[in-house]
Specification:
Length: about 500
């Protein structure tokens, strides 16, 4: 998408082949968007470049401890195996690649001294700005996150490369490296950037947002389920993760894309140019359902060899050890008490942004209303509530709300309610209630999470007897600046904090 230092790149190529590196922090599981850099690495190799892949294990720890120290080794081994499997699935010869771990050289005396030298010339402002798109942003950042961009800059020197390749979200770190490496007497490098693939919910595909991404080891039924829920509005080509995946992954790998459809709808059609497919989708010649089905088939062909490789007992064991499921406590043997208490954490709640698309009076209850709420699924959810007592019906229509989606559905006066709108409530009388407000710009279906608990998997359904929501709800509060919190950690979407209008110090129910 962008190149910084093209003149230097051309000058090097007149003398020899380019030495380039791509790095990845070993945090959450790699997902299908990783095929974008992988396909470009294949291009670099075909062009004769010397390519190094860096498994940035130390960076993973520095980024707000996304990878606990005790799991670093396991996650790095997982990344090494899964990325090699990805490259093999698209036909990249591994013998032409060099694989390096960050801790192989980043703990050396020379590197450590350079970190200190760099910290003596870099301002806190520049360090924070450089990591803004990459390092997890919190209100009171840790020093480790401020060190992160400096380490990435020094990697260019210690890996002895001419260029660094990464996503366009790395641009601020790349310009940071260009500014500060010369101050240590090191050369400015070339930087090449690939585009970021929108996730299935319409924003950046992220390891920490489960609904936005397809994991490389997802089962075929999971791929089908996630694609079925993906944002793919008829005729809308903006922030369309399904179309973007075709553009940035499937077309570069295959040079064509086949839309599969029944004969009565015109039969299969092969596209050799992405622009023609996008035009047909915009004009609604191609139906979203056919597009999703076709991507599902193509994607499973890419994932099958990776799934097969990770079906071995050794790699299954590695995967489970590197990414233990925090939400599933080990069940007790029959007749014995479980000595380990159940892990009740906010990531077990499936909380999403919803858009109210209709509000109707309950047929059998004067104080209840039936709302249809879009949460990014093919069909809207039916929710029964008494919200209209506090918010006028016309103000609820088309409003964005925050919905708890994995409560067990229950009938309320004969109408099944499939979720609960989370609201702030005042303390004391008269009782006031305000729906929680997602940040402006959110889309229906976006996940809401608690700061620090982005990576966990929500339960499929909260069991009423376990009272998981009730235990967590005891620590839900509205802060003095009207932000929704659990144990003083903010409710967030990828666009920022969840809040309410005015009920400071209130509870959340």
């Amino acid at each position: 998408q962008e190149v910084l230092g093209e003149d230097k790149l051309m000058a090097i190529l007149k003398e020899r082949e380019l030495k380039i590196y791509w790095g990845t922090a070993t945090t959450g599981k790699p997902h299908v968007a990783y095929f974008v850099p992988m396909s470009k690495i294949a291009d670099f190799l075909k062009a004769g470049c010397e390519v190094t892949i860096l498994f940035a294990d130390l960076h993973a720890y520095l980024d707000n401890m996304k990878a606990p120290w005790e799991l670093l080794e396991l996650r790095t081994r997982y990344y090494e195996n899964v990325i090699k499997a990805m490259l093999e699935s698209i036909g990249v010869p591994l013998e032409k690649l060099k694989f390096v771990r960050g801790t192989d050289y980043q703990l050396s005396k020379e590197y450590t001294l350079d970190v200190y030298r760099l910290s003596s010339v870099v301002t806190q402002h520049d360090a924070k700005k450089a990591g803004a798109e990459v390092v997890k942003q919190v209100e009171h950042p840790l020093l480790s996150g401020l060190l992160y961009p400096g380490l990435q800059a020094l990697d260019e020197e210690y890996l002895k490369v001419d260029a660094q390749f990464g996503g366009v979200d790395q641009r601020k770190i790349f310009t940071f490296a260009e500014k500060y490496l010369p101050s240590l007497g090191y050369a400015k490098r070339v930087h090449l950037m690939n585009p970021m693939v929108p996730g299935l919910t319409g924003s950046k595909m992220s390891s920490s947002e489960e609904d936005s991404k397809i994991d490389l080891l997802d089962r075929k039924e999971d791929v089908k389920k996630k694609l079925k829920k993906a944002f793919c509005e008829p005729g809308n080509v903006e922030n369309n993760g399904v179309l973007s995946f075709i553009k940035h992954v499937l077309f570069p790998l295959k040079s064509e894309f086949v839309v599969l459809r029944e004969e009565k709808w015109g039969g299969n059609k092969t596209y050799t140019a992405y622009e023609a497919l996008e035009k047909d989708f915009a004009e609604q010649v191609v139906h979203p359902g056919d597009l999703k089905n076709s991507v599902e088939v193509a994607l499973n062909k890419l994932l099958d060899p990776i799934r097969e490789k990770f079906n071995s007992p050794e790699l299954k064991k590695l995967t489970n050890a590197a990414y233990p499921n925090p939400s599933k406590a080990k069940p007790a043997e029959k007749g014995t008490k479980n000595s380990e208490p159940e892990n009740v954490v906010p990531s077990r709640l499936d909380i999403r942004v919803g858009k109210v698309i209709s509000v109707e009076k309950h047929p059998d209850a004067d104080s209840l209303y039936v709302e249809k709420i879009d949460v990014g699924e093919p069909e809207p959810r039916t929710v029964v509530s008494g919200l209209v007592q506090f918010v006028p019906k016309e103000q609820l229509q088309d409003r964005l709300v925050v919905l708890l989606c994995n409560l067990k559905p229950q009938k309320m006066r004969g109408v099944e309610s499939q979720g609960m709108v989370l609201c702030a409530s005042s303390v004391g009388e008269p009782r006031q209630v305000e729906p929680l407000d997602p940040p402006a710009g959110c889309c229906a279906g976006e996940r809401v999470y608690v700061e620090g608990y982005e990576g966990g998997e929500p339960d499929d359904e909260l069991k009423p007897k376990k009272k998981v929501f009730e235990k967590l709800q005891a620590d839900f509060r509205i802060s003095e600046d009207c932000v929704a919190q659990w144990k003083q950690k903010n409710f967030l979407t990828k666009l920022g904090r969840v809040s309410c209008k005015s009920l400071k110090g209130g509870s959340i129910s």
